Amino acid sequence: MTNHAGFAAEDAVTAAVPAPAQAGRHFSAFLTPRLTDCKKAAAAEHVDLAGAGVTVPGSWLDSMRASSPRHAKPVVGAEHDDWMEKHPSALAWFESVAAAAKGKEIVVFLDYDGTLSPIVTDPDRAIMTDDMREAVRGVAKHFPTAIVSGRCIDKVFDFVKLEELYYAGSHGMDIRGPTAAASEYHHIKAKQGDAVTCQPAAEFLPVIEEVYHALTVKMASIRGALVENNKFCLSVHYRCVDEAEWGALDAGVRAVIEGYPDLRLTKGRKVLEIRPVIDWDKGSALQFLLKSLGYEGRKDVFPIYIGDDRTDEDAFKVLRNRGQGMGILVTKFPKETTASYTLREPSEVKEFLRKLVKSKSNGDKGLIGK
Ligand SMILES: O=P(O)(O)OC[C@H]1O[C@H](O[C@H]2O[C@H](CO)[C@@H](O)[C@H](O)[C@H]2O)[C@H](O)[C@@H](O)[C@@H]1O
């Protein structure tokens, strides 16, 4: 695959499930009328290079613009087929996945937004369905399972609501093991009172808090902008901001963080993210969790990481470098990725998780895992 800039990627939002607003977020002024407009725009929207890991030459603004449907070219025909051949469906090729995992201990890592819940206009309404929750619960009964998200732990836990999981929030900078209620599960190796925790960016909390307030003030004049406090990192959403104002938003964010050399700017799906400069990402969280679970130096472990955006690429790369397990990218369109398999959308993720459980339940026949 060579010309990644030509690859389009979807970012169609799904109708939001109404839910009460939560703390730790701030929508800028005029949101209510803008949300209606945004929903209309979202209905016609099918592409988002911004979430595709695509490198667009020029400024960040160019890159933000590239996520507009007007600028993106869908990939069709031979180029698409070629990409799918290199990144086959983990469902259609499930037998291959099972064969690769045979005789090994599976550990499951799941991103949240765009993986367990569909992308929606309002981040507070990215609800996970009960069916999906049951699928994740089923997986966690058989395999150690972690949620790895850009969101803060409390927020992602509010959505997932499963105590038997590991959680790595704030892009892996806040890691927490299962609560005692989950100790009945055979795979929980940590002893009671031996809780797994890790907060490598703890010293940055005061500065993040300060910048959150400064960004909230700065973004107040940009209609539809939303600043979300994810504890160890911040998200500035521009999904509901007119494209004509993206430049002002980008400049405003940069002006605020200019005075903070300890912070850096990254980009997700219609979101600018501000995080500490420390060398820690979702890939580091994956490594930390595997070690905490006692898999360091073991050849018989098979981590499966499922995620949909560029921040998940750090975890895919770790798996590729370890030569272990499998990265699965959730996407309907070709994207530059280190993942080896694909699933099209959260409903396919659910089906894949169910298949994993079913295969494990037939474990005596040795279909999957140990
Ligand atoms: O690592 P993740 O669990 O995928 O979290 C990444 C970001 O997800 C959320 O934003 C994205 O999803 C929203 C809801 O569907 C959508 O409105 C937004 O445009 C997307 O960027 C979350 O709000 C961010 O804080 C996370 O960093």
Automatic annotation (TrEMBL):
Pathway: Glycan biosynthesis; trehalose biosynthesis. The keyword Hydrolase applies. Gene3D superfamilies: HAD superfamily/HAD-like. InterPro entries: HAD-like_sf, HAD-SF_hydro_IIB, HAD_sf, OTSB-like, Trehalose_PPase. It holds the Pfam family Trehalose_PPase. GO terms for molecular function: trehalose-phosphatase activity. It comes from the Eukaryota. Belongs to the trehalose phosphatase family. NCBIfam families: HAD-SF-IIB, T6PP. This is Trehalose 6-phosphate phosphatase. It comes from Oryza meyeriana var. granulata. The lineage of its organism: Eukaryota, Viridiplantae, Streptophyta, Embryophyta, Tracheophyta.
